[in-house]
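We emphasize that the prediction below concerns an isolated chain of 185 residues; any contacts that depend on oligomerization or on bound cofactors are therefore not represented. The input was used exactly as deposited, without trimming of termini.
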Amino acid sequence: TEVCVCLGSKDATYQALKSLLKPGDQVVVSAPSYPAHISAVTLAGGSVVSWSYSDDPAQAAASLTTLLETSGAKVVLLNFPSNPAGVVVSLEWWQAIAEVCRRFNAAVINDFVYGEMCFSGQAAVSALWMRERGVLCVEVYSLSKAYNVPGWRVGALVGSEQIVQCVARFKSHSDYGLFLPLQYA
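Result of the prediction step, given as a token string:
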């Protein structure tokens, strides 16, 4: 109930946004951003509010608070570890962002496809623990980067059952899913 296999990370991101947005909704997107995130927001009917985040937890929380207050956005689309910047954020950073998102009832979608590729020797912190703080949160995952299989289009949406099940229901009507032997592999 908390995992939906998708046709790559772009599909997972778009489907999650589509399940959360109404036409014209604002989405806070971390900048610099992966260009596919901007496209996914637009295709899902939303508009982008660019967030020049700080890796300092207090500064990030303050600037996100301002953006959520002024935009009314109810979805925050992040990408940590980041593409293209390579930024890896700390647990303290996620804690500060979780408090802001909980206060504003903002859902979080984190693109975690580079989660296994950190140069510091420490594992990246997953955003999924924010669910314990009452934040509606999903992560997008892909086998393309860490397992070098980009043509397979194996991705997943993982996290909050409410979002994952909405995407799974929609996908059961919109596509046939990923070739089963690839899922098994």
